[in-house]
Amino acid sequence: MSSDPIFAGVDIGSATAKAVLLDGSSTILGTSIIASGGNLADAAQRCLALAAEEAGVLPDACTAVVATGYGRERVAVRSRSVTEITCHARGALAMFPEVRSVVDIGGQDSKAIALDERGRVVRFEMNDKCAAGTGRFLEVMARLLEIELDEFGGRAMHAVSPVTISSTCTVFAESEVISHLARNENIDDIIAGLCSSIASRVYGLTSRARLSAPTIMTGGVARNKGVVKAMEVRLGAPIRTPENPQIVGAYGAALIAMNQPAS
Amino acid sequence: EAVRRDKADGVIFLLTNFCDPVAFDFVPLKKSLEEADIPALSLSVEQHREPPEQLRTRVEAFVEMLQEDGV
Prior knowledge:
- The complex is a heterodimer.
- Chain A is built from 8 helices and 10 strands.
- Chain A is an alpha/beta fold.
- In chain A, the strands form 2 sheets. In chain A, strands 3-2-1-4-5 form a 5-stranded mixed β-sheet. A 5-stranded mixed β-sheet of chain A has the order 8-7-6-9-10, with helices on both faces.
- In chain A, helix 4 (149-156) packs across helix 6 and helix 6 (187-208) packs across helix 7 (225-235).
- Chain A is globular, with a radius of gyration of 19 Å.
- In chain B, 48% of the residues lie in helices and 17% in strands.
- Chain B has helices at residues 2-5, 20-35, 53-66, and strands spanning 11-16, 40-45.
- In chain B, strands 1-2 form a two-stranded parallel ribbon.
- Chain A binds chain B through residues 70, 82-86, 90, 109, 120-124, 126-129, 256, 260, and chain B through 39, 44, 52-54, 57-58, 60-61, 64-65, 68-69, 71.
């Protein structure tokens, strides 16, 4: 095996653990996404090992490892930890150099991040403890409607007249959905209503952070076309999404590892 | 004035939930900080409770933001 430097970013989120491995010229060598589960330290090791396997290197071959996400302090091999706000901004900037704002919706957090013309974070807003306006909300609703999470966004695009979900609270919104079902409303219309409800919740954050265009959406929920579209309607501007929005934080962390090896 | 005197890079407001007298002062303070281009972070905290992980992320991200090229 060669001794070329390898830089790793490990993002331990509330729902999934992600790892990205880069070579010295910031080319992605390997990535992985697994469920975080109940043991974050173990998830960190497993996702790093999977990404290393894809890259064809040993997990302990990494020159520097930057950990991020709410489980960042549980990553044993980290050289340092950096918050996911800085990492998502850095990752999005590398993918889209013209980016001026990032909307990151993960499993339990949503964030609106404003960048200046040099790509530095100037303001950010983050949701409070409540799971409304996050991936968890979608998970609960997908389970209730017996629809795979991956199909959720596509179904929203088929809506004819989306229903209004007025409760922001996940638990209250769930009973609201049940009422819509009882009234025999079209499921696609209910799904579109749920996507809009997330967008309006996150819109509160984006307004406070005073985001400017172009906006990039990252995090698992960016895979949901219904939410992205509803967010575009709210912002009144198109949103771009990376091919794999879930790994943007880990990618940003790996870039930070590359620029600043272990001190 | 205190902010300028101490050359603070940024200001963190701790707002106790449902404590309106403090929140009342916050609005003009935040406005004048914005005019002076001094970053501010406001955190809502509950009394007698350990701050949750999300508060920690906010504070750390705020520090990283102030370090600019430090990351």
